[in-house]
Amino acid sequence: MTLTSVKDPAVSEAPVSPPKAAKPPQDRSGYLFILPWFIGMAFTIIPFFASLYLAFTDYNLLNVPNWIGLENFAEMFSDDTWWQSVKVTFIYTFVSVPLSLAAALGVAMLLNRGVRGLPVYRAIFYLPSLLGGSVALVLLWRYIFGLNGIVNAFLGFFGIDKISWTSDPDHALTTLIILHIWTFGSPMVIFLAGLKQIPSMYYEAAAIDGANKWQQFRKITLPLLSPIIFFNLIQSLISSFQTFTQGFIFSGGKGGPANSTMFYNLYLYKQGFEQFHMGYASAMAWMLLIIIAAFTGLNFLLAKRWVHYDN
Amino acid sequence: MTTDESYLERVGNSRRKRFTKHLLLCLVSIVMLYPLLWLVSSSLKPSGIVFKDLSLWPAEWDFSNYTEGWTALQFPFDLYLVNSVVIVVLSIIGNLLSCSLAAYAFARLNFRGRKLFFALTLGTMMLPGHVLLVPQYIVFAKLGWLNTYFPLIVPNFLATSAFYIFLMVQFIRSLPKELDEAARIDGAGTFRIFWSVILPLCKPAFATTAIFTFISTWNEFFSPLLYLTEQELYTVPLAVRQFIDSEGQSQWGQMFAMSFVSLAPVIGFFIAGQKYLVKGIATTGLK
């Protein structure tokens, strides 16, 4: 009782006002406001556990699901295409996420501190990140990197022979990694907002003490920006593990050439909705959840070493 | 003298630095824009010369790719555009309504379980969507909703986008509480306060939500692919995708033309709503 009155000086100064105003009343109407949310949440939680159950069955949309224990998971480990999809997704994620975050941070730092024309540059860099996941853009990418596309024409100026980017299993994924890096704009905007919050007096003080640009970056920018770098890293990892459209459109839905663009979720889709191995697809989805949770958890553990929070 | 010289040198240095900076930024800009400019330019060239003529400026402007591409698929392209617009508009309305209701409750109302529910919402942001895929598909199939727009629209009316709820909660929390209290003293009920006091102030958060919903729904490929198998229900991305199968040279130009038609609304909305977009993603990153 005393605590609330201390917290709210208006009440203690004006004892005339009804005591109700001291604390917002328990408002049951809150449940009415979240009624749609409640149904939506039920439609998330129930499928969540249903798919966990299906992961242990041989469900194929036609028959009643039979409990088969860990068989789906055992099958996964002996399924070469599954391993391939893990490999493709891991390479894609662990190459393109760091590179695109580095590009985002680098360009954000170039743009920081009042470059003339900043809104224009920011718009130009941000726009691709809104288009990168669209069907039209992935299609376009196939032709830009086509045998007679502009990339090969450009390389031709330097005397480099034509590379079959789209049909050579060694290069197809590289093309999609470049597409991912091309969309660095959305983490860049977040970095820009974060950089703006670092007081410029820190840099001035460091400069007076004789710190060079690199030292300033290491000792001021990186630590103060680390929570935002961490946020961007987690976000990018989670979404990158779930890449689908890029692989599907690039390979015409086949994951080729030679399964080199067989992303995890593309394989899951093929298993579930082309072969109707719904049990296997559910098991795969849960396996991906475990993988994502493991990497996110690992990042949170490692964060203690490099992420600095103000207080 | 010496101070003058070093001053001049410094000015010269910083000018050179500024120049290199702009040069670098312009180079990056070219790399970022080139693919899009190439798309537009290729869509205006006769198909035969797309890969022979690498210049960005078409020697002659040829709009036949647009007129022919428009009717190249089973249905004229405006059908796909209308389909997409219907889904997008309803999705925006659904998200604005359901997410603002939930966000107001989470930000302002005091009821049991509020914190737990909000934490649950944030938790779903991390959940990979495919975990829910199979059971949701089965439910939609049992409801007879395959080849309808319900699976694409109804979830938006059920506040399933945690991101937008989060955005609005942050926004409502930043509004002064005195507003609610003043309205309550004037005799307004909770719903009245929400509707007449809070909602009108939420316009910026609504704009951000609407633009994000527009772009993500417009580009969405997976759900339409899963739930729509009849041509006449296809959305724009499903329609554009069909140009993959047409590997013949004569159709490249048409493919580029229709690709540009599919991207143009996103580019337009981006230019119109840039302020809200940038603000929106900046706040999610910082808080």
List the helices and strands and how they pair.
The complex is a heterodimer of chains A (311) and B (287).
Chain A: H1 2-7, H2 9-13, H3 29-33, H4 35-54, H5 71-77, H6 80-111, H7 118-131, H8 135-144, H9 150-157, H10 172-182, H11 185-196, H12 200-208, H13 213-241, H14 245-250, H15 264-273, H16 278-306
Helix pairs in contact in A: 6-10, 6-11, 6-13, 6-15, 7-11, 11-13, 13-16, 15-16
Chain B: H1 2-43, H2 64-70, H3 77-108, H4 114-125, H5 130-142, H6 150-153, H7 162-173, H8 178-185, H9 190-201, H10 203-219, H11 222-227, H12 236-241, H13 252-286
Structure write-up:
- The complex is a heterodimer of chains A (311) and B (287).
- Chain A is an all-alpha fold and 311 residues long.
- Chain A has a single domain (71-306), classed as MetI-like (MetI-like fold, Orthogonal Bundle), CATH 1.10.3720.10.
- Chain A contains 16 helices and no strands.
- Chain A has helices at 2-7, 9-13, 29-33, 35-54, 71-77, 80-111, 118-131, 135-144, 150-157, 172-182, 185-196, 200-208, 213-241, 245-250, 264-273, 278-306.
- The radius of gyration of chain A is 26 Å and the shape is globular.
- Mean pLDDT of chain A is 88; it is low at 1-22.
- The model of chain B has no long low-confidence stretch (mean pLDDT 88).
- At the A-B interface, helix 3, helix 4, helix 6, helix 7 and helix 8 of A face helix 1, helix 3, helix 4, helix 5 and helix 9 of B.
- Chain B: It is found in: Cell membrane.
